[in-house]
Amino acid sequence: MPHSATRAPLYIAMHERDNVAIVANDGGLPAGTVFASGLTLREHVPQGHKVALADLPAGSAVRRYDVAIGYALQDILAGSWVHERLLQMPAARGLDHLPIATAQPAPQPPLNGYTFEGYRNPDGSVGTRNILAITQTVQCVAGVTNFAVQRIKAELLPKYPHVDDVAALEHTYGCGVAIDAPDAIIPIRTLRNISLNPNFGGEVMVVSLGCEKLQPERLLPPGSIALIDERSAAATDSAAGLDVVCLQDAAHMGFMSMVDAIVRQAEAHLQRLNTRRRETVPASELVVGVQCGGSDAFSGVTANPAVGFCTDLLVRAGASVMFSEVTEVRDGIDQLTARAATPEVAEAMVREMAWYDAYLHKGQVDRSANTTPGNKKGGLSNIVEKAMGSIVKSGSAPITGVLAPGEKLARKGLTYAATPASDFICGTLQLAAGMNLHVFTTGRGTPYGLAAVPVIKVATRSDLARRWHDLMDVDAGTIATGQQTIEQVGWELFHRMLDVASGKKTWAEHWKLHNALVLFNPAPVT
Fold first, then answer.
1. Using CA atoms in the order 381, 382, 383, 389, what is the torsion angle rounded to 10 degrees?
2. CA-to-CA distance for 206 and 514, rounded, in angstroms?
3. Those residues with Cβ within 8 angstroms of residue 234's Cβ, 6 or more apart along the chain or in another chain
4. Residue 189 CB partners (closer than 8 Å, separation 6+)
């Protein structure tokens, strides 16, 4: 691809009524640059940052995505750089008098015939990986468990070639918390449902300290799981079948005794997992979580629209797709409630937004705290602009369901899974919902990764895709340069998903970029 020095000056407007556009050229453009429209830059404008397409009087609305992303704090002349210091952020949209289930798009034809090679589980779910997960009840056992996992990988895993990996579900919860507080249900059900993720094949192994508040029977109570004895085809309740290694048991004489116990118990699970084989399953068995992190002004131009197009393809194929990040959709709540399949779905979205508004108010912050220095360096002036680019990941399909944090998904189609916008909290909660494949878009770049599911990284800019060539899986920057359309990149991503779900490794898997779980805990810490 030619560099900006040899490419014609280019800006991108999102809507015909927009009065700002973003500079597309790598490295930005200098003062005096003349665009094909005749617009002349009055100053240097960095790549991804906004330029005024017309004179903007003080107090007037600055429009991008045909939405007022701010109001001019002073007169801004055409050709000027429009950045966050020149804008007053609009007030948040109220949660009353919203359009409710008013946008009902014409039904799209089913997308039949697409398959992948996955692992069928006894409970009917399908995994894209075959992983032994070791659940931990409390952060105190993390050091011992991690030591044991390294031994398992070195000594046992080579004997079981059909098992993809061993993952310790490390977190910072379990004790020193008000475990009976009403909101404590969120981290507890999150960890419970992650332990039952489809990529773990129904094998549940727990390491406990012994004295922690989150006891194994509270984390995974009788009835929460059913373990299948394949030899007898009989289901056994978790009360009898739950496999727990308790480090404070009197039988453990020192550190290596604890490690030996974990390794010994793990081998029985590895033996069962190793008997599993991939089989052809329909694309409808995909459970995809979409998320963005390290966003920039191109996120809503390239990567997120391509993901949104792919989301529509997945819904047409009968799959399950989740989009999330409360603060990054809050300013578009009217768009979401309009797309709700039913009034009940719209009301559930409003409840989640109201809960999160109250949560932020309790912490004496508001939604403006979301945008990072990197977001702003990438051209995003505030959360309103960021939200408009984030929402498009959800495509155009009706929103058929809403999940509260930590809940498990139980329907097909497009679901709004309410989560904080923090990358790892969002990813953790989508794992709890049953995600078996993750799509993550980024403009600034992040080495984000999860041990439990493959993460497909989509770069918003070709410059990032070139520099981070061994971290980014898909280059959506070709949309900005005109080399590909949104639809072409969306189809490319769809086929990439089927390949990855069938076992092809992502770059995050290649480098084993496995970050710890981050449980969302709004309850008090004691």
1. -20
2. 19
3. 228
4. 406, 407, 432
pTM over 0.85: yes
Q: Counting Cβ atoms within 10 Å, is residue 442 exposed (0-12), middle (13-18) or buried (19+)? A: buried
| Bridge partners, residue 235, by sequence | 228
Say which residue the tokens 């990149």 belong to.
489
363 burial level (CB within 10 Å; 0-12, 13-18, 19+): exposed
Enumerate helices (H) and strands (E) in the chain, giving the number of each: 14, 23
Length, in residues, of the chain: 526
DSSP string, 253-276: -SHHHHHHHHHHHHHHHHHHHTT-
Q: Which amino acid is at 385?
A: E
Bridge partners, residue 206, by sequence = 135, 244
Q: How many CB atoms lie within 10 A of CB 267?
A: 14
Distance in angstroms (rounded) separating the CA atoms of residues 306 and 202: 34
Facing residues of 455 across strands? 438
Give yes or no for a contact between 370 and 421, defined as CB atoms under 8 angstroms apart: yes
Query: What residue type is assigned to position 168 of the chain?
Result: A
Amino acid letter for position 419 = T
Edge-first strand order for the sheet with 279-282 is 126-127, 115-120, 279-282
Instruction: Please give the Cα distance from 32 to 50 (Å, whole number).
Output: 16
DSSP designation for 106? P
Helix/strand/coil for 280: strand
* Cα separation, 160 vs 271, whole angstroms: 7
Dump pLDDT digits (tens) for 129-168.
Answer: 999 999 999 999 999 999 999 999 999 999 999 999 999 9
pLDDT tens digits, 481-496: 999 999 999 999 999 9
Distances (CA, A) of 144 to 35, 79, 138, 140, 173: 61, 60, 12, 9, 16
**Tens digit of each residue's pLDDT (9 = 90 or more) over 93-106:** 999 999 999 998 88
- Cα torsion 226, 228, 234, 236: sign: negative
Asked whether residue 240 carries a pLDDT value surpassing 50, the answer given is: no
Residue with tokens 């980014």: 472
Amino acid at 52: A
Neighbours of 325 (CB within 10 A): 27
pLDDT at 241 (0 to 100): 65
Strands of the 81-82 sheet, one edge to the other: 11-12, 20-23, 50-52, 81-82
